[in-house]
Amino acid sequence: MDISQRAVLSVFLGMIAASGAARLYDKAGQPFWHAFIPGLNLVALMRIVGRPETHALWVLVPGINLYFLAKWMVELAQSFGKHHWIDHVLVVAFNAFYVLNLGLDY
Questions:
Q1: What whole-number distance in Å separates Cα of residue 99 and Cα of residue 92?
Q2: Which residues of the chain have pLDDT under 50?
Q3: What are the two backbone dihedrals, phi and then psi, of residue 97, each rounded to the nearest 5 degrees?
Q4: Which of 48, 55, 72, 87 has the highest count of CB atoms within 10 angstroms of its CB?
Q5: What is the dihedral of CA 26, 53, 17, 82, to 10 degrees?
């Protein structure tokens, strides 16, 4: 796979992730455009999962940010009624597609 194919794949996956997050934020009562602005998307995520907005600053700490991102994704799935362990594994492993699934789910 050469560099142009990787770039196209990255843009495609980014569009899937952004559209899924926009739909999910709209479903959760947040403005959909918050999904497209870096930093503001994390603040909106903190509002959805019920955490203080200042917790979004944990993303700035190297190493620890991976733990907190995984934890917030699990809490996001729990916010939409997904409490089974397989849902937690799927939301961490296939984040963009799972968030899209949550946004399109009833």
A1: 10
A2: none
A3: -75, -35
A4: 72
A5: -70
Residue from 63, 23, 68 nearest 42 by CA = 68
Determine the pLDDT at residue 76. Answer: 93
Q: What pLDDT score was predicted for residue 22?
A: 94
Q: What CA–CA distance (Å, rounded) separates 35 from 25?
A: 7
Give the relative orientation of helices 95-104 and 85-93 as an angle to the nearest 10 degrees.
120
Helices marked H in 1-106 — which ranges? 3-27, 40-49, 64-79, 85-93, 95-104
Q: Which two tokens stand for residue 41?
A: 């998307």
Please, are residues 80 and 102 in contact by the beta-carbon 8 Å criterion?
yes
- Angle at 24 (CA atoms; ends 21, 30), nearest 5 degrees: 100
Nearest residue to 75 (alpha-carbon basis) of 55, 61, 60, 57: 55
